[in-house]
Write a structure and sequence with these properties.
This protein has about 210 residues and is α/β, with parallel strands linked by helices. It contains 10 helices and 6 strands; from the N terminus they run E-H-E-H-E-H-E-H-E-H-E-H-H-H-H-H. The protein has helices at about 10-20, 35-45, 65-75, 90-95, 110-120, 130-150, 155-165, 170-175, 180-195, 200-210, and strands at about 5-10, 30-35, 50-55, 80-85, 100-105, 125. The radius of gyration is 23 Å and the shape is elongated. The relative contact order is 0.09.
């Protein structure tokens, strides 16, 4: 079975070059071309490709917005970003939008084909620059969360753990032998310190940071 590919790029020469080369590959079938994000969404719905090679910066709707919408509508479609931009401001949003790969346009043609096939086999394919940005982003997030947690008092930490167990203020008060009013104070303090909006976020935060047994 051939891999059905949709190519999205606002530069006609780049798009045609990709089509010309990829059509020489016996395992790939080019089923469509789009010049912007809006066209990409329409063709993704109409043609149901296996994978989309998506440019990042395009007029009208960019590749990140298009990727997010396509992945919401058809999560089974794989998307590889193929771009000239490798800075963190482009890499992280693209991956968060649901891209399975991130490659630069200076990639060797044969390497591009290999990357497409690996993505279809379930592997994420990231350019080394994209990988370093992703790791740096995760590392800085982890450090920030650890630092915020260290600002909590022991009692606030206890309350956070109880919130994660789904307990009400009344139940937390009974468990920790303090008043409900005190619990409320601890809850508002820990939400402020951890920069969270509500108890649900606090519960998720506690689970994510392995504070729950």
């Amino acid at each position: 079975m051939s891999i059905r590919v949709l190519i999205v790029d606002d530069h006609h020469v780049v798009r045609r070059g990709l089509v010309f080369f990829l059509r020489t590959q016996k395992d790939l079938e080019i089923i469509g071309e789009a010049a912007n994000g809006k066209e990409a969404i329409e063709l993704a719905n109409a043609l149901n490709p296996d994978i989309i090679l998506m440019d990042l910066v395009m007029p009208g709707m960019d590749g990140i917005q298009a990727t997010k919408i396509i992945k919401e509508q058809q999560p089974e479609i794989k998307i590889m970003m193929l771009t000239s931009f490798s800075d963190q401001d482009h890499v992280i949003p693209a991956l968060e939008a649901g891209a399975s790969g991130f490659q630069l346009k200076d990639i060797q043609p044969d390497e591009l084909v290999t990357a497409v096939k690996k993505i279809m086999d379930g592997e994420n394919q990231l350019h080394p620059k994209a990988t370093s940005h992703l790791l740096a982003n995760l590392s800085s997030k982890g450090k920030k969360e650890k630092k915020l947690l260290e600002e909590l008092t022991k009692r606030e930490l206890d309350v956070l753990k109880e919130i994660a167990k789904g307990k009400s203020n009344k139940e937390i008060a009974a468990s920790l032998f303090i008043t409900e009013k005190t619990v409320k104070t601890h809850v508002s303090n820990l939400l402020a310190k951890l920069e969270l909006a509500d108890r649900t976020q606090a519960a998720l935060y506690a689970v994510k940071n392995q504070l729950v047994d």
